[in-house]
Amino acid sequence: MSDASIDLYIQPSADPHLSEYVADRFKARQFLSGFKGSAGTLVVTAKKAALFTDGRYFIQAERELKGSSITLMKMDMAGYPTLEEWILEELNNEGSIGYDGRLIAASEESKLHRCLKSKNYSYITSQDLAESAWDSRPDYPLTKVFVHPLAYTGQTASDKISTLRHTLNKQNATAYIMSSLNDIAWLFNIRANDVAHTPVAYAYAIITATSAQLFIKKQQLDANVTEILYRNQVDILPYDNFYSYLSQLKDEAILLDPDKVNALMVSSTSTNNMHIHCSDPVFHMKARLSETEENNLRQAQIKDGAAMVKLLHWFDNNVASGELTEADVELKAAHFRSQQSLFIETSFKSIPAHGSNAAMMHYSTPENNSPKIPAKSLFLLDSGGQYMDGTTDITRTFTAGPLTEEEIRDFTLVLIAHIRLNRVHFLQGVTGTNLDIIARQIMWENHIDYKCGTGHSVGYLLGVHEGPARIKKEHTDVVLAPGMVLTNEPGIYKEGKHGIRTENTVIVKEAASNETGTYLNFDVISYCPIDTRCIDKSLMRNEEIEWLNTYHKEVFEKLSPLLDTDEVGWLQNATKAI
Amino acid sequence: MSDASIDLYIQPSADPHLSEYVADRFKARQFLSGFKGSAGTLVVTAKKAALFTDGRYFIQAERELKGSSITLMKMDMAGYPTLEEWILEELNNEGSIGYDGRLIAASEESKLHRCLKSKNYSYITSQDLAESAWDSRPDYPLTKVFVHPLAYTGQTASDKISTLRHTLNKQNATAYIMSSLNDIAWLFNIRANDVAHTPVAYAYAIITATSAQLFIKKQQLDANVTEILYRNQVDILPYDNFYSYLSQLKDEAILLDPDKVNALMVSSTSTNNMHIHCSDPVFHMKARLSETEENNLRQAQIKDGAAMVKLLHWFDNNVASGELTEADVELKAAHFRSQQSLFIETSFKSIPAHGSNAAMMHYSTPENNSPKIPAKSLFLLDSGGQYMDGTTDITRTFTAGPLTEEEIRDFTLVLIAHIRLNRVHFLQGVTGTNLDIIARQIMWENHIDYKCGTGHSVGYLLGVHEGPARIKKEHTDVVLAPGMVLTNEPGIYKEGKHGIRTENTVIVKEAASNETGTYLNFDVISYCPIDTRCIDKSLMRNEEIEWLNTYHKEVFEKLSPLLDTDEVGWLQNATKAI
Model-level pTM? Predict the structure, then answer.
């Protein structure tokens, strides 16, 4: 920092594509801080260092930062400064602020500059300081790209690009620049393995009225993929040429989403072009599944449910020994998924957590010396799969042995929250902000809160946590629409005690339409029993009990054909009406 | 329009202070269109005219525009253009757009210009065309200003101004310009009668670090008021000098809220000063009642409830005759309120509506030939009072005779929605957008929607519909906080059938605080029985029935001391547990 004349350096978690999960090469924040959570920003001055992260990671970050000189800043909690307030405090009236302009969204950069504009700060945005500090930094991954076939996508890349061009045209845009790996993978119907759990390739793209340019490392493309891309009128250019190509653009009206492109992409094109800010059109196009995608996803969910039942059956038969470890459960879940047809990989690093470990919302168990599971309390498993026919994400919390009254009560509250959200009908036009309280209400009634959203969109053979839609108490302007896939995952997390979450995936459907409007609701598409041994039925309303019994009936019908006799017996018992 | 070279003229409903209710002088939109609702914008070209209004007024506007050549544009309904889309359609690529820059908020003007910027339109913003079209236009009202005494406000004007100066200082502002009549009345502890139902005086104000300038017509001030204002270090300047004074401001950092000041105020100060845009600080200061204000308001609500019970008792004894008119009920309600201590005037034009008339959310009954009330169906009365010790707003729907099953069912649904919202606990930090669905959920479940918000703030001896907080499904960024006063008023409105609304006022209170956050809830402060003859108890949950019985017990305890023997007997019966 002192060589580069930087007084304060900001190290975000992102890669240049602002991915949630990134290739090892881009885990610089983790390398520098030791904190392994997927979200967090490290800020360093000559004397101090602070890590800003959100409620999902408070417990984990506290543990992983212990012994370092880095102070944990709990975002959105009273008594903690925002990143900008911290900077103002540390830098006072002047100083130079450094960051890599590729690792920060254009909108975040604007906000940062706006919040700090009263001071006389300078910005050095071309420095990747992690590079010099990190001797054994991994190289770019160069995994093989494969085509996502028409049977699963329902639409060719060329058809998708043509729909996109209509949108650009309507917005009077002549060019559209893309860096989101998920959006690019979806638009071009390509996938790869550059990032663990998210089957994407590192790439950029530029779409104009007449061209579709894909910037990607050519080593990743075989002749077949190249041929199919050419057939879809896609030009292939070298990944490393992207920024120099960008800076040569001239007289274009460039459509871009400041939340989805990095600051360097904006500054590289700001002199000779016009910018049209707009919520990313591909982000929204891909959020509503086509009929083909939906039919495929429903199949993937059934296979995934069968794998989950095999896992739960195995767990029930083996937990009493006290010898199982959390890592055993993670491996076994991956094993049962891998036996399902069209399986590619797990859709995120599983969370297999016993007892109080589950209070860490994004816990991951150590690979070595993973803790043994005592035959008591609750066990939480959050896991999912990437299948050629879709992405899954499911959490079940289940009994590992005798439970406390508090565990049973909290499990039931979470289940009630989950069921209420699943049963809600809502007017077309509202967002996930309107719906959040339907799940959260019973928590707030009991003066409990979970420090995270209630649901997120799920990609289709793409990111497991994707936008645009979210169900959360904070503002979102993404209107829920038929075909959107979301999770429903309220929880209760009590530090030192237990963590409980019940998560299904739902798809938005039209429920009714009359002169007062169109009403939507959720169709649940995850199939896996919810542990009835943990329920205090007396807390539930009749309609909630009915929902559970109906759901369990469907689970049995859908999954039993995929199971062996023992497993069917287990499932029959697990799905008995309460 | 053609003399002024204007191709399209926009006539909003507002006065230069952007008041919801305006003096007759400013009812130009009503004069020009014939539509009497409080919200709506008329747009006129050489060939066409359109009136844009929201869901509260669709039925009323349809009726009042019948026979005119004005087309009704239903805002936010599918198939209807926005105001800007209509302009683009009518004007095509060029033309001149006229409006009076004092009658449109600065933020609305920005939005208008932004939406139309792709075209080559010119703007003529200094023309009040209504002036020439309106021969017998009323003059400014010049009612007497009176001081709102310390016993009711708990704070002197000079104390309030001093708190405000801290805020200005924090925002690095040197001046703050105000046009909101409600904000000015609150800040200076003055009231008047310039606008029916809202006890304010037409005034502007400018606050700096050293001065507090009130622009008001001097005829309205007597020696006593002048003396008290001087004692609070307030300078009094002529109302008519405001814009010329503004345009002489120089080198000021002016804090203003673009939603609360008109476009002319912004353009008058834009050349030689800096603007700091900020949500209006006084708007937020006055939203949270002080202890003095709250204690006073609770008294006012009890008096208001007693007046309501007298009215309901009288109605029950007289409705069977079939000779009562809606106007009789309105007058009688005003009469009973006027007998209460510290009463000033009604807080809005009452809505006394029988049967299908009540389906018009903002119905008002004709003064002459008001319809007689048949002894059947439901009667809705939305009414309130301005008292020296606070403002009330309450709606009851009650039986005028035999009811249909549908009326009983809908009444019960509205009651359930009302009770659910009243019972909710919520984390500090959320807004009315988060809460709206708590009331609306049972409507949406039944595929019904009410086309309005669920609640609004109520001023303190000020506007009955005030911001900043709202409970509505649309986005609001106003965080609910202890001391805020809101209405809770879900409804069902079925054109040609009936309209049902149950409205109480609530105050936000702290319910609990622990390591997960601070939880708030609502304390109901309106006291008046809810007609138990209209309820289908089988639709209600036990906790909802319990709420109603507990509420009715409190109503009886609070109100019976203010009633005569007959009325007490009636109330005892009306508040019997169900």
Answer: 0.91
Rounded Cα–Cα distance for residues A430 and A411 (Å):
29
Average pLDDT, chain A: 95
Cβ <8 Å between A512 and B434: no
The Cα of B538 is separated from the nearest Cα of chain A by a number of Å equal to 14
> Which positions ≥6 away from A577 have C-beta within 8 Å?
A549, A552, A553
Parallel, antiparallel, or unpaired: how do β-strands A234-237 and A203-208 relate? unpaired
Binning pLDDT at 50, 70 and 90, where does residue A117 land?
Answer: confident
Whether residue B512 and residue A449 make contact (CB cut-off 8 A), yes or no, is: no
| Chain A residue whose CA is closest to B76 | A429
User: B146 pairs with which residues across the strands?
Assistant: B191
pLDDT in tens, B488-501: 999 999 999 999 99
ipTM above 0.95, yes or no: no
Q: Which of A74, A276, A435, A447 to mutate to test the interface with B (most CBs of B within 10 A)?
A: A447
Interface A–B counts its CB contacts (< 8 A) at 76
Q: Are B157 and B187 in contact (CB under 8 A)?
A: yes
Cβ B444–A437 below 8 Å, yes or no? no
DSSP B97-108: EE-BTTSSBHHH
Residue B280 CB neighbours (<10 A): 21
Cα(B207)–Cα(B373) distance, integer angstroms: 52
- Which of A437, A514, A519 lies closest to B434 in CB terms? A437
Distances in Å between the Cα of B478 and the Cα atoms of A474, B466, B468, B471 are 12, 13, 6, 10
Look up residue B22 and give its two tokens: 């305006």
Mutate to test the interface with B, among A276, A449, A518, A538 (most CBs of B within 10 A): A449
Return the amino acid letter for A312.
L
Per residue, what are the HEC states of A59-81?
HHHHHHHCCCCEEEEECCCCCCC
Of B553, B519, B59, B26, the residue nearest B262 (C-alpha):
B26
Query: Could you give the CA distance from residue A178 to residue A171 in angstroms, rounded to a whole number?
Result: 16
Instruction: Please identify among residues 106-135 of chain B the ones whose CB lies closer than 8 Å to any CB of chain A.
Output: 118
Chain B residues near residue A429 by CB distance under 8 angstroms: 473
Query: Nearest 5 degrees, angle CA A231-CA A234-CA A238?
Result: 130
Q: CA of A515: which chain B residue's CA is closest?
A: B448
Burial class of B170 by CB neighbour count within 10 A (0 to 12, 13 to 18, 19+): exposed
Which of A441, A450, A521 should we substitute to test contact with B (largest number of B Cβ atoms within 10 Å)? A441
Residue A510 clears pLDDT 90, i.e. is over it: yes
pLDDT per position as a tens digit, B122-141: 999 988 898 888 999 999 99
A519 vs B contacts (CB less than 8 Å): 444, 447
CA atoms within 13 A on the CB side of A504: 28
What does the pLDDT read at residue A254? Answer: 96
CA angle B36, B37, B42 (to 5 degrees): 80
Q: Which amino acid is at A116?
A: L
- Give residue B562's pLDDT: 98
Closest of B2, B6, B1 to residue B95, by C-alpha: B6
Which residues in A lie closer than 8 A to residue B436 (C-beta atoms)? Answer: 434
Question: Rounded distance, CA A187 to CA A277, Å?
Answer: 20
A:500-529 residues touching chain B, CB 8 A cutoff: 511-512, 514, 516-517, 519
Do residues A396 and A415 touch, judged by C-beta distance below 8 A?
A: no
Cα separations (Å) of B144 from B156, B193, B346, B347?
A: 20, 7, 18, 18
pLDDT for residue A38: 83
Minimal C-alpha gap between B293 and chain A (Å): 28
Token digits for A527?
Answer: 């199939």
